[in-house]
Amino acid sequence: MKRIVEIGLLQSQSGNYSAISRASRAGVLQGVDEVNADNALDVAFHVIERDPEGRVDRYAPLCREILQNSQVRHIFGCVTSASRKEVIPELERFDGVLWYPLPYEGFEASERVAYMHSCPNQHLLPLLDWALPVLGKRAYFVGSNYIWGWEMARIAREQIAYAGGTVLGDRYLAIGDTELDHIIHDIRALKPDFILNSLVGDSSYAFLQRLAGLKAEFGSENSPAVLSCNFTECEIAPANGAAAGLISAGPWFEPENGQGGSLLEMSRQAVHELANLLHNRPQAEKLSLSELLLAALQHGYQPRLDPTNLHAAQPVVIARLEGDQFKEIKRLPQLRADPYLTHHVQRPQGTGFLKVVS
After folding, report:
1. Which of 54, 52, 56 is nearest to 9 (CA)?
2. Which CATH architecture has domain 121-255+315-335?
3. CATH fold of 3-117+260-314, please?
4. Residue 322 class from Cβ within 10 Å (0-12 exposed, 13-18 middle, 19+ buried)?
5. CA dist., res. 294 & res. 307, Å (int)
6. What's the pTM value of the predicted model, to 2 decimals?
7. Would you give the DSSP letter of residue 224?
8. What Pfam families does the annotation carry (predicted)?
9. Within its chain, how far is the Cα of 167 from the centroid?
10. What is the pLDDT of residues 11-56, one digit of tens each?
């Protein structure tokens, strides 16, 4: 008989980034079905789900509700870093763990979070290392106005400056904002070699659609390339054909035409990882994440998560969207996560950069 373990699911089915959250939700549910059907595992999952509706103010109360009113200690969910940071205090208060299956900006290592996707040394830095020699060194940044957009721009600005490049513009939009005239005007005037797009959800789709309109002016050969570390297969349809040619970095792309991409796959893998950690360990779901990983190691299971920083090692794949499928450009072997960039290549000493903001 399988023992039943309750798990939480906290993903939005509506709102400005619903395509992303629905893909992650589908991956969790697929993983649960697979685990429950696997007779080699002695654990089965029962899902308790809440829908934050894409509203950042709903994540913490719903996380608290799940942890207080059930046996759940492991929750799968959140899309934005803002929502992840909202639930961490609730996880600390009620001894919960968040399995977070989205790329993020790094500079965090909460003992309450299992970081199952990529951080900057596994997405942004390899993408820029490839892009700067190939595309050129004149960059333009556009991002959503919260920590993901800010930190991606900060890290990219330093990397580009050290490479002798220039950042021509750095603009932000509130999540869901689609007023883009000033940004399109900038790009038309400045003609960057590439654009780092760190917008999320509807803002990103609207931007790509407006940018597609510039291709007729620039000509396909002179149009700036668009780079992203968060655009995956689940967003191709919402972008309505405007994402053609976009270059993305991540740990996994669909081998054939698919709709979930790495967000679905990392969510699915996260469920399997928890099942493997709990297998043959009754009551292990009550352990802290660090204790759970240590117990697994003692029983001969090698976890996906690094016990020292709770991040998963990931390969790096750089791919270009052609039609409805990403085609691989470059692949790097699996990299250990370095969320604080402490092991990144050392830069020349004594060099500083000032950023003027208004």
Report:
1. 52
2. 3-Layer(aba) Sandwich (3.40)
3. Rossmann fold (3.40.50)
4. exposed
5. 7
6. 0.95
7. P
8. Peripla_BP_5 (PF13433)
9. 24
10. 999 999 999 999 999 999 999 999 999 999 999 999 999 999 999 9
